[in-house]
Amino acid sequence: MRYLILLSVMLIVGQVHAEEKPVVVTTVTIIKDMAELIAGDEFEVRCLMPIGGDPHLHEPTPGDARMVTQADLILMNGLTLEGWLTELIDNAGGDAEVVTVTSGIDAIESQTYKGSSDPHAWMDVRNGIKYIENIKDSFVALKPEAKEVFEFNYGVYKKQLEDLDDYIFKAINSIPERHRILVTSHDAFQYYGKRYGIALESVLGTSTDAEAQVSDMTRVNNVIKASNIPAVFVESTINPKMLQQIADDNNIKIGGHLYADSIGKEGSGADSYYDMLKHNTDQIVSGLTGTNQDDTSAFTEDSKTPSWILWLVLALMMVAGFFILSNSLSSK
Ligand SMILES: [Zn+2]
Fold it and tell me: Per the domain annotation, does 312 fall within a domain?
């Protein structure tokens, strides 16, 4: 009985202790992953966007408002990515500090919306390193007594990201120069292209909140014809139909699935920021060097010629052959 009481006390104390952890709320899964790696066990890290969700089109829920109210710190990307966040925070209230993790980054101007910034800065790993530096600094400000933990985790992570930056550089360089063109659904890869030396062409603009026009399809088709690239790429958060149409029209492949605005599910090979960029790079290299397996199986079933047509053609050829043969025999 004494042990039982002791156990209950320990459980209650444990629970109270767990609830005491400061809560860090992130907007997108990429920032959540970074924050968890820097935080270790010091904070509880939560995320407003689900894995695979599209942050451009997110509509806040009552659950989001609760999360914001409970937050001690909110980490956002900024650069126009989370247009819905200010209103959410205003409505939810709470006293969380809001930190923009892209602070100090050299932003690229949006290709679609002149005068506003392209939000996809994480695609350049040097920017990713700036993200984790800003996250680390915000954590030190929130809990100075754990500064050493944050500094240590940051140091290890930074080294990994520097190696990743090198890896991507070399990988993209291995693609023949005339094929270094990345065709995707939306314009999420400008930072990636600028840093690693690959030209970009997308059907939609910087946001997914737009309909593709016939002129967009024609423009992309012309680029594919002129460059003779062997593959185009679909994105995990966007319907692949449009890109499948382009691949079919040009008789080329879907070179793979890229993760642009969210990390992948567990087991996807892209379930962290690091793995997402490595996965994307490997897909791009194998797709554009023509070394990948056909990744279109899920979408191309109806493009195959049905087998009954082949049988009909064969039967007609046999009938025709029979007539020719009998004609030539009877004319003798
Ligand atoms: Zn995007």
Answer: no
